[in-house]
Write the structure tokens for this entry.
Amino acid sequence: MKNNVTKITEKGMCVGCGSCGVCKHITFVNNELGFPAPVVDDTCESCGKCLIECIYNMDSD
């Protein structure tokens, strides 16, 4: 599994706070409900910087 904010968005835990935006590989688009959601680009290196900033990252893996 990728070491990026996709772990959070796939679980439905993301609230679009923007904290993960510290990474240059993340942009935000409005989701189906109209709220901002992070999108990770194809050049992501899975460094985990976005997960360090994410308040919903409870995983240790």
